[in-house]
Each structure stands twice: as C-alpha cells, then as structure tokens.
C-alpha cells in the first residue's frame, strides 16, 4: 500500500534524480518551443505503449524497436509535424533524428526514442532539426523552468501544459520512489490530427519486462479510459524511463511491483484527466462512472459509449440533465443489462430508476452541470464490476477548432 | 431485374391501391400536425425492423408483437412524445392508443401498429389522444395533400418531409408493383432524443415471412448504413405493409422475391439518404464508399468509423480535404489492411496513395466539398468487398440544436 504521497505541479519530467531535459524552439510550430529532449545519466529501463491505429507514424515504428530492446538514454520529441504518412522518407527522417541526437549526446542512436506530433503528410524539415537538436542538447538542465519548457515544447493545440512530480513511499519498498511526468493531447488536434504523448521518468530500478507490465496496467485504466472525440492518432505514445538512480529496486513480481504499479497509475490518472479537461473546446471535465456491471468489459463498453456520445456531450455543454441520452447510449453499447433495473445519477442526484424518471430537483441538477468537474453515473444493476471513464463536453469551439483549420 | 422504375415525391404512403391515411394536429408538438394514421382496406401482411437499443419505448415492445403475428390493418404514429422510459404506464398507454384506434376504425386493436417519437420520460397526455385519434380517423383520405400531411405529422426536428411513391416492373412479376414510403429522422433529435421512423406500403401480395426477409435485407444496406451522430434511438422502427391489392403475388423465394427486395431496397435507399441529408445541422450529404476490403464486415467497419468520426465530419463542414483524418479513422476501425496499399479519394481525385500524400489540386478538392452531395472513398487494397455508407457533416448547428434544448 502507498503510505506517503506528495505531488507537485511545479516540477515534471526531471523531478527524479538522474534526468536532465530541455525545450527549445526549432521552428516547426508557428511560435513557441517545439523540440523537447529528455536525457538519463545512464542507461534506463524503458517501457512503452503505442497507438493501436493501423496507420502509424514513423516515430511509432521506430520507438517500438527501441522499447523492445529494453534500454534507452533519451527521448527526443518534436511538435508541429507528426512525420506520419510520409512513406519511406518518413522512416529515414525518424532514424536521422535519432542519429543527430546520438551524435550530439555521444550516444548510440539506438538508445534514443523519437516522438512527433503535429501535421501529417508533410515531410519533416530536417535542416531545422539539424540546427535544433544541438541547441536542445546545449540547453539540457534540471533547474529553473526546465520542466515547464519541456511541457510547452510538446504542446500543439493544448491550452495548458500538463505535468506532475511525485515523491511516494510504500512499506514494500526500500526508501522512496520519485516520478516525473509530462503529457500533451486535447483531441485529434489541428492541424491534421493529434496525439496523446506521455513521458514519465522514475528513479526506481525496475527491469524492462516488469516495467512494461506496470505501464500496460496503468495505461489500461487511465489513458485508455479517456476520450475527447473517439479518434485515435497515428502518433500516440506513452514512454516510461526508469533510471535506477534512487533507493528502490524492484526485481520480481509481488507486492513491491504492485505498489509501484499503483503509484504509476496515480501519476497516469492525473495526466489523463488533465488531457480530458483540456479537450478541444472543452468547458468541463466529465467523469462517467459505471457500476453494477456483469463484467469489467461491459462496464467499459457502457462508459465509453456514454463518454463518446455526441448527444450526451452536447447536453453536458448545455448543462442539461438529459438522462434519456445517457440511458440510451448505455442501451446501445452492447453491454447486458435490463433498463428497468438500472439507475442514473447526475452528480449525487438519482434522475432515473425503476424504468422511469425519478423525481429530482432540475435546478440542482442543472447547477451541478455548470461546475468545471461533473460526474455522471449509471448503475446497471446486474453485477459488481465498475469502471470510470473521463471525457469533456462537445461545444461550438470543438467544431470551430476542427472545421476552421484548413490543411 | 427491375425493368421499369418511375418515382415521384409528390405522393407517398397512399400511393399503392388499398391505403388511406391522415395527418392531424393532436397537440403533442408545439405546432403543426402530430398524429398520423395509415389504414389498409383489408388485412395486410406486415414486416418490421426495430431498434436494437436495450432501452426500448413502449411502442416498440407493442408493435413487435403485432409484427410477430404477421397481419395488420393500421399504423398510428404520434410525434412530440416518445412514450419511452415511462414504466408500466407507458405500456398501458401504448395499448390504449391501439384500443382507441381499433374502436374508431372498428378493428381488432391487435391489428393496429403504434409508433411514437419525441421527448422521453414524459407520460403521454391520453386526453389529447382520446380526441385526436377520432379526428385522424375522420380525416382518412387518399386525395390532395394527404401524403404530405402524413409526412409532416411524423416530423420532429426534421426540416424537410421525406416521402416517395414508386411504380415499377420486373419480368419476374405479374403486372407492376407500387410502393409508398414516408420516413422521419435527423439525428437523435431534440427534445430528448430522436428516432428514425419509416413506413412503407405496397400493393404486392407477399406472405409475412418473405416480406420480413425482404425488409431485413433492404434495411441492412440502407437504414443501417446511415449515421448522423452514431446514437440509436429507443423508438427506431421500419414497418412495411403489403396489401395484396395489386396484380403481383409473390409466394416463394426466388427471382420474383429478389426483384421485390431490390425494388424495396431502392425505396429505402432514397428515404435513408434523405434522413442523412436532413441530419441535424447538416450542410451536405456525404457518401462514404469503401472498396477493396477483405470482407463486407470489414468494409462496413471502415465506412461506419469514417462516417461517425467527429474529426472527419468537422473537416467536411469546413470543406477541408483532410485525408489524414479519413485514413486515421480507417486505421482505428478494426478492419485489416495495410495503409501502404490503401488509397483515398475525395470526389474523383486521389489524395493519398502508396503510403503518402498524392499530388492533388487542393482548390478542386475544396470546391468539391462545398457541393450539397460529396463523396469520400477509400480503397483498402486487400480484397474485393465494398459498401457505401451515408452521413452528413458536423456543424455549429448540430451543437446548437443538441446543447441549447433544455429538457
């Protein structure tokens, strides 16, 4: 069990010992820093989770190979150009990015992970990266606003940087473990599409297979349970580097790994919720909670269907306690339940039960939906499985952001 | 093979011999006619397809039983109140509607089909129906604007009435067959949700099992291949009445039934496309065509995912030839294909092939997307299966219609 938990949002990716980073302007976005570099003092264990989209950017294909080898020293990430759907040239450019970084850092390029986000179908301007990567290496630091610069360098249409630093303890561990995390994403964002990118560092020592197991589990219940518009990107990627620079060493499955996974899940949950909150055009963060399901898969099916329903999401934007849309979304999800045994809550008020509308205070329900964080829950009345899912509302600004951009 | 086809949009549900109808105001909507009645001179064979949503309105549960018996004389449809999620009272009210209609028409109430569309979770005002149903019976007619009044009576947020009359021939038939059709639907529409309702009449004589087979097949490739927002309603229903008042009798499976199914499919296709065209906030009708798939299921998966993607639909609203979003939606659909072998077309221009952007005329592609009917196609390059799917774009007005309504 996690016995101590301290988190900060002033620090991020270099919070654990053993990491330096930088965020510089390379000229890929129209303004602001757009190239981030994260470097570990020595070889780190690495784990990664990648988009399941069949259409995959060159960086995804490349970094997957690095992760398979289990060790890495650096993550190089550019924003403003996804380097996706660029044919063989895209693959060559991704490798060239790793080679330039390797040369400048005096590392084997196979130890450099690559991530990209931005416009697709446009070739990377390699001349800019030839100049930008050495600048990023020169700027490597752990002090001042380094972590914030990293967070800003990976943003595209995100409105807010998203980062976290954590220091935590468990009785199962020697000493404490620190985590640093940063992510970006706010929909499949302009210009062409977007991307969820998440980078996490830790000072724990965890061998790659166990690290991958922990990351898979953490992502499953966090990043895989957020949705802005249901569209997955060609570039999605979550990477975890474990430096082994701290006191805690985890060498086998068991309670210590479970608590590490638990802590990692909390880090991912914070970052995932920040992505949903910053969804394109979002005015609120919405938790969709499904309880009483026959299976976890059914609970997730219902939660995802509600969270992705344009009708539910527009009603949330309009602060309308429209339980009919919630119930109807559940009904078409494919999950097994009897509507007569189900109940729906908006905030802490029951609005539907026993097959019909419950008497509820409409003004209260409306007011509750005007808050920046709102919760919808549905009890399916079948079993005991439950999940939470996070989304945002669907506003005029979502349409604006996605319709007014011209490729 | 269908050898002759004449269609009109001046006539609709009473176009075949043997049917009368009416559309009257009963007071369930804020204005306009809101109660439609369609009556066959004698017992008609009946077939029906109903929503697959687990949450089903009382009229769906009731009419399903009528369809199972295979014969019906009338369809009574109200707009403005869905009579869904009203518990046992809802079931009693649906039965009462059939009983009042049966009494006024001097029919067994089990021969009366019931359909409802509109707000959910509010009890039907039965006093209004007690007065409205006799008025509908008194107004039964086949002349003048009867069919248009029926089409208007079943509308909720639809902007346009949708109806068709068809007279067609096949060498497999004795004489000709006439069809009349009417439908409504433009999304899961305000106030609470909406509904796709479709009623079709024909003068052919077709026994219920064959009629059901024909309707299932026609709906599968038409109404089941349109989407406005991916939300299915609690009240969706397509009903087909075959009066046997004409020359053509179909008694067994074979070429005559195949041509009947083909003709019925064309009727459904016209009506389904009209629903997509009239989608909430829609500025254009979009055909998504998938070719070169390994299976029909894969083709449908890709087509549906593209047609439901908010990113694709907002790009269409913005007239942006954003092939990246189309390809990425295909990539997450679950269908098997290699993006390097796929190609994407907007109108008749190839915009993506061989793993990268194709050189295309951006202005032409933009102009083609400003038309009222546009087509997107993707060839998966795997096999030879293909399907078409119809949808509309996602505009500010979709958000407005669905966010600004307050239950």
How would you describe this structure to a colleague?
Two copies of one chain form a homodimer. Chain A has 407 residues and is α+β, with helices and mostly antiparallel strands. The first copy, chain A, has two domains: 2-277, L-amino peptidase D-ALA esterase/amidase (4-Layer Sandwich); 285-404, Roll (Ubiquitin-like (UB roll)), CATH 3.10.20. The first copy, chain A, has helices spanning 58-69, 87-105, 126-138, 146-153, 208-220, 255-277, 296-308, 310-317, 323-331, 362-369, 396-404, and strands at 2-8, 19-24, 35-50, 71-81, 112-119, 162-170, 176-184, 197-202, 237-242, 285-293, 343-346, 349-353, 356-357, 373-379, 385-392. In chain A, the strands form two sheets. In chain A, strands 1, 2, 3, 4, 5, 6, 7, 8 and 9 form a nine-stranded mixed beta sheet that branches. In chain A, strands 13-12-11-14-10-15 form a six-stranded mixed beta sheet. In chain A, a hairpin with a 2-residue loop joins strand 12 and strand 13. The longest helix of chain A has 23 residues, at 255-277. Chain A starts with a strand and ends with a helix. At the A-B interface, helix 2, helix 8, helix 9, strand 13 and helix 11 of A face helix 2, helix 8, helix 9, strand 13 and helix 11 of B.
């Amino acid at each position: 069990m996690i016995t101590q938990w301290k988190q900060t949002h002033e620090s991020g990716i270099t919070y654990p010992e053993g990491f330096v980073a930088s965020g510089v302007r390379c000229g890929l976005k129209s303004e602001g820093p757009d190239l981030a570099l994260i470097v570990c003092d020595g070889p780190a264990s690495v784990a990664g989770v990648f988009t399941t989209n069949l259409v995959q950017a060159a960086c995804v294909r490349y970094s997957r190979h690095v992760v398979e080898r289990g060790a890495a020293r650096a993550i190089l990430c550019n924003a403003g150009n996804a380097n996706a759907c660029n044919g063989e040239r895209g693959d060559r450019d991704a490798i060239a990015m790793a080679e330039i970084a390797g040369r400048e850092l005096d590392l084997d390029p196979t130890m450099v992970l690559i991530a990209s986000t931005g416009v697709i179908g446009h070739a990377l301007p390699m001349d800019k990266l030839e100049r930008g990567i050495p600048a990023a290496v020169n700027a490597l630091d752990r002090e001042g606003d380094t972590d914030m610069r990293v967070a800003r360098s990976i943003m595209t249409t995100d409105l807010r940087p998203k980062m976290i630093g954590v220091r935590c303890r468990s009785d199962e561990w020697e000493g404490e473990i620190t985590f640093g995390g940063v992510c970006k994403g706010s929909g499949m964002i302009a210009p062409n599409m977007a991307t969820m990118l998440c980078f996490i560092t830790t000072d724990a020592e965890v061998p790659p297979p166990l690290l991958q197991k922990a990351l898979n589990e953490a992502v499953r219940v966090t990043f895989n349970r957020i949705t802005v518009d249901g569209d997955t990107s060609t570039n999605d990627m979550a990477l975890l580097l474990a430096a082994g620079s701290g006191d805690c060493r985890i060498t086998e499955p068991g309670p210590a790994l479970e608590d590490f996974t638990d802590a990692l899940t909390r880090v991912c949950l914070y970052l995932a919720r920040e992505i949903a909150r910053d969804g394109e055009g979002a005015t609120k963060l919405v938790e969709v909670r499904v309880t009483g399901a026959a299976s976890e898969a059914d609970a997730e099916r219902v939660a995802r269907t509600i969270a992705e329903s344009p009708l539910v999401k527009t009603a949330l934007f309009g602060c309308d306690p429209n339980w009919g849309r919630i119930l109807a979304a559940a009904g078409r999800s494919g999950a097994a339940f009897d509507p007569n045994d189900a109940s729906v809550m908006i905030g802490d008020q029951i609005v539907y039960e026993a097959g019909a509308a419950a008497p509820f205070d409409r003004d209260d329900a409306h007011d509750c939906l005007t808050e920046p964080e709102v919760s919808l829950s549905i009890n399916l009345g079948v079993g005991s499985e439950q999940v939470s899912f996070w989304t945002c509302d669907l506003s005029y600004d979502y349409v604006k952001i996605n319709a007014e951009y011209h490729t």
